[in-house]
């Protein structure tokens, strides 16, 4: 008799956590949500309250408290773990002690809780912040094993997480797969340095002028695709501690604006000439060689779908139009 997996997700109230939970629920699986926040606004964009209550066990928990993490993993019968909770760049800069406690100690707590519960594999989010600025690398896509040279504490903490995973494999045989996203977009992507394209899609849906506060080139990754990649990774034990870049073809911000305007004719969008402080593209060939499926929604389709979803939510009064830029 096959038992349905029970997946513990940390950071369920964030964008990727909400998407991962929604996809698992729609597959008929059970989710354990572990998050200090009780704000379900992003999750509510993807699942009805009834769907949430039927399939998700909500735990208001603190990653920095090992006892809480241990109980969450052990007491609810978790068989898989997707670790997405983290404090982002600005918070880590403003409060390094708390940033380290959540991002570094919290990750150690989760690996240790998995070990004690007999869970032999987990997946977690790393970041392209482990790399340095474009000047550190030759032209072209940055390889997944290129030199780590973070310029933020957030990036330093992510390097520590990758090291933690490596040692838990070395010392305890706990395998792991980490993914490094670039610019995630879609419903629920309302915070972070690279959230401006999604905010521009919401503004276009609401017929409100907006501006993307950076230019240059990025790799756009639909939140649904990224969540699906994490789910697959959590369900596929490996022999080691592996870390992969997420790819997609690099695209200019001007092209992103053009796609938004094609999906919503008349949308008034501008951008600045600022550049993001990391390389514009990362090589995902290692991921493609290692897994059976790489999820990659064509950018035009993903943008059009996101705008349609925002239009529906606006019409239903479930979200508010943004303030004009």
Largest sheet, in brief, is: 7 strands, parallel
Number of strands: 13
Query: Number of helical runs?
Result: 12
Distance between the termini: 56 Å
Q: Radius of gyration, Cα only, in angstroms? A: 19 Å
CATH architect. name of the domain at 6-183 and 223-248 and 277-297: 3-Layer(aba) Sandwich
Give the helix level as a range of percent. 40-55%
Flag low-confidence runs. none
Q: Spatial order of the strands in the main sheet? A: 3-2-1-4-5-6-11
Structural class: alpha/beta
- Helix and strand succession? EHEHHEHEHHEHEEHEEEHEEHEHH
- Summed over residues and divided by their number, the pLDDT gives a mean of 96
The coarse silhouette is: globular
- CATH names the topology of the domain at 6-183 and 223-248 and 277-297 as Rossmann fold
Instruction: Indicate the CATH class of the domain at 6-183 and 223-248 and 277-297.
Output: Alpha Beta
- CATH superfamily name of the domain at 6-183 and 223-248 and 277-297? NAD(P)-binding Rossmann-like Domain
Strand content: 15-25%
């Amino acid at each position: 008799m096959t038992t349905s997996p029970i997946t513990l997700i940390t950071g369920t109230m964030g964008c990727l956590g909400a998407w991962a939970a929604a996809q698992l629920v729609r597959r008929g699986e059970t989710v354990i949500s572990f998050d200090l926040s009780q704000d379900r606004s992003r999750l509510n964009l993807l699942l009805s309250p009834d769907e949430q209550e039927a399939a998700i066990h909500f735990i208001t928990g603190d990653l920095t408290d090992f006892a809480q993490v241990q109980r969450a993993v052990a007491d609810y019968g978790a068989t898989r773990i997707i670790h997405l909770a983290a404090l982002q760049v600005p918070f880590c800069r403003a409060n390094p002690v708390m940033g380290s406690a959540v991002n570094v100690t919290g990750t150690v707590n989760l690996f240790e809780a998995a070990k004690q519960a007999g869970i032999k594999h987990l997946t977690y989010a790393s970041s392209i912040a482990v790399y340095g600025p474009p000047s550190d690398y030759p032209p072209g896509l940055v390889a997944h094993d290129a030199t780590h040279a973070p310029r933020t504490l957030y990036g330093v903490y992510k390097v520590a997480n990758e090291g933690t995973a490596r040692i838990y494999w070395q010392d305890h045989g706990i395998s792991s797969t980490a993914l490094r996203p670039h610019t995630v977009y879609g419903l629920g992507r309302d915070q972070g340095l690279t959230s401006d394209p999604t905010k521009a899609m919401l503004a276009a849906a609401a017929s409100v002028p907006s501006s993307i506060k950076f230019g240059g080139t990025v790799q756009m990754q639909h939140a649904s695709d990224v969540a699906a990649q994490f789910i697959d990774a959590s369900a596929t034990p490996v022999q080691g501690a592996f870390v992969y870049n997420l790819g997609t073809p690099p695209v200019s911000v001007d092209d992103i604006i053009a796609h938004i305007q094609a999906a919503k004719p008349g949308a008034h969008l501008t951008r600045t000439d600022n550049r993001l402080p990391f390389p514009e593209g990362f090589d995902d060939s290692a991921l493609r060689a290692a897994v059976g499926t790489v999820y990659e929604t064509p950018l035009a389709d993903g943008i059009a779908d996101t705008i349609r979803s925002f239009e529906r939510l606006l019409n239903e009064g479930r979200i508010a139009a943004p303030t004009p830029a």
